[in-house]
Amino acid sequence: MGVRPPQGGDDTEPETIEFGIAAVDARLRDADLDFPASADAVDSALGDRPVPYDPAGSTVSLSEALAEVDANSFDSRQELLNGLHPVFEAYRANRGASLVGRLRGLLPF
């Protein structure tokens, strides 16, 4: 997923913030990884860097997210992303921002 950050008042096109499977997909494009691949191979190729799972920038390590996927190997890039999708959705639902944080995100200041 990608979300545009709030406009800063200038006329330049804002960059998108990638999180969840969109962030992993962006890293996959730059990685030297062939499929089928094991979860360990994915973790090694992408590095155990934090992956943002919501627009607020909350993160989870890739190895932790991969540990929660039901499969240990992936036949394709899409299968990997499909396996990670419910993991990131669960993180967003269960570890999301507090009510105050959500309300702040709605306000323009």
- Uncertain segments are none
Q: Tell me, rounded to a whole number, the average pLDDT.
A: 82
| Order of H and E elements | EEHEHEEHEHH
Largest sheet: 2 strands, antiparallel
The 3D shape can be described as globular
**Order of strands, widest sheet:** 1-2
DSSP helix fraction: 40-55%
- Termini separation comes to 24 Å
Count of runs of 4 or more consecutive helical residues: 5
The tally of strands reads 6
Specify Rg, calculated over alpha carbons. 16 Å
Beta percentage is 5-15%
* Tally of separate domains: 1
InterPro entries: DUF5789 (IPR043899)
Pfam families: DUF5789
Explain how this protein is built:
InterPro entries: DUF5789. Strands 1-2 form a two-stranded antiparallel ribbon. The chain has a two-stranded antiparallel ribbon with strand order 3-6. The chain has a two-stranded antiparallel ribbon with strand order 4-5. The chain has 5 helices and 6 strands, in the order ββαβαββαβαα. The protein is globular. It has one domain (15-106). 17% of the residues are buried. A hairpin with a 6-residue loop joins strand 4 and strand 5. It is of the alpha+beta class and 109 residues long. The longest helix is centred in the last third of the chain and has 18 residues, at 77-94.
